[in-house]
Amino acid sequence: MLPGEDEGLGGSSVNLKGSMASTGMQIFGFVLALLGIMGAMVATLLPNWKVSADVGSNIITAISQMQGLWMDCTWYSTGMFSCTLKYSVLSLPAYLQTARTTMVLCCVMAAMGLCLASLGLKCTRWGGGRRSKRHAAIASGGCFVAAGFLCLVPASWFTNEVITNFLDSSVPESNKFEPGGAVYVAFVSAGFLFVGGSIFCMSCSGKRHGPQDLVLLPPPDKLLLQQQQQQQLLQQQELQHQYCSLSPLDNKTGYSLQDYV
Q1: What is the DSSP letter of 216?
Q2: What's the rounded Cα separation, in Å, for the pair 15 and 4?
């Protein structure tokens, strides 16, 4: 066995295990980011960002109200359900306008990150070489983190406004609301996007101290045979070079009349 062969094989196995672990983490981050973008889209369209609170006289009422980013809905005890779209944008409060804008930007940014992540995954064949895949993965991680931030801001601001109005004693009980299910979906989606983006950034941010590409060494007997063949080829090339470098006078094997004239 050649010296250093065990070290090469051991290093190759370690690099292979590290690459497989990194690929698995990338797939896990991709799944989390996919769940995050789906949750963000669902939260953007849901009408229950805030629901009427069951306090005081509202407990015996037969009407349940819900308000979302795009429509207000009313649920009657008889089973009837009616919704009204919010056509006027300027008449909406500032936190609602901001929630609309940031949630749409969150979905767009997450979709861009999803496209870049599909190119940056190590288990895919498209996306170019290793270096370009690394850059695509880091860019997708940045998009996911930005999308998570854009999803977290409206959910937090909306929740703060709802809780502030609920605790305000000047607001009548019939106009008091509490956070609905869409807000919780937005918080969970933001967490998924943050974790998925962090995994993508961390999986390719470190510098590689080993070889960039995996090199598989042949068996010892084939390696010795290859070395012997290379040595024989080098000897043949040296002999041909020496023969070609001889002068024409040294290559003459017979006598010529011109040599004696």
Answers
A1: P
A2: 16
**What totals of helices (H) and strands (E) does the chain contain, helices first?**
5, 5
Half-sphere exposure in the Cβ direction for 111 (13 Å, CA): 8
| Token output for 28 | 């896990």
**Distance between CA atoms of residues 211 and 34, nearest Å:** 32
Structure tokens belonging to residue 82: 């009616």
Per-residue pLDDT of the chain (261 residues; tens, 9 = 90+): 444 444 444 444 445 455 566 778 888 889 999 999 999 999 999 988 998 877 655 555 557 888 889 988 888 777 788 888 888 888 888 889 889 999 999 999 999 999 988 888 877 776 677 788 888 888 999 999 999 999 999 999 999 998 998 888 887 777 788 888 999 999 999 999 999 999 888 876 554 444 444 444 555 666 677 777 788 887 777 777 666 655 554 545 554 545 544
Cα–Cα distance measured from residue 109 to residue 107, given in angstroms and rounded to the nearest whole number? 6
Question: DSSP for 52-93?
Answer: E---GGGGG-SEEEEE-SSEEEEEETTS-EEEEE---STTS-
> Angle at the Cα of 132 (from 131 to 133), degrees rounded to 5?
90
Three-class SS state of 172: coil
If one counts every other C-beta atom within 10 angstroms of the C-beta of residue 240, the result is: 10
Model confidence, pTM: 0.68
